[in-house]
Amino acid sequence: MLSQRLLGLVSLLPLVLACSKNAPPAEEPRYELDEEEESSGGPEMMAEFGGLNEEKVARVFKNVQPALSDCLMKGYSRVEFLGGEVRFLVNVNLSGRAESAFIESSNLGDYETEMCMLRELASQKWPKPVGGRIGPARNSIAFDPPSDVRAPVEWSASHVRSALAQGSEELRACGGDGPFVITAYVNTNGSVLSAGVAHSDPNGEAAALCLLNAVRSLKFPSPGSWPAKVTFER
Description:
Fusion Protein Consisting Of Minor Coat Protein, Glycine Rich Linker, Tola, And A His Tag, Chain: A, Domain 2, alpha+beta, 234 residues, single chain, 7 strands, disordered N terminus
């Protein structure tokens, strides 16, 4: 009986060996490694506005003062009693150059003189901003009229309210975000002798010019025997 079992096992041995020979090799277990996510933090973003060295800014304004005075002298040929206080804003880029320049506030009252001053400021070399792409440089400068010329009559905005109301459609059509502060010299016959405008709207120059032209076309009341000066806002 035992011999029959052994013979049976021996007879099956070639078949088992053949099957094991043809069977695909067992695959080794695979272990997947979790890859660490890379940090998504790129280079740090630079702020839009930074700071400027105040001492160096003051030095630039001091050095450009003679050129600004020359602009004023040219303005005297148009308005003999020209004078007022102007607050400048120069936005300086990373190259130390003026990216834009504005007159934030002014009661000077002569656009050509104001633009002459802005051109001089824009041509200067400024300190480079720190901590931002743009550095604002601000300064207020008072420009005195000639001492030997009679000053204009000072008007409040109420003196020109009716004239502005009559020209409201033209003024409103100029658009612009504003606010726009306009200073005008009114001649003895009610016409505009000269006018200037202050604003800090990056896209407001076209509106400012439109407003100046509209104001120059208005007829104001006569101030009497001597021209008047008035500042109002739109």
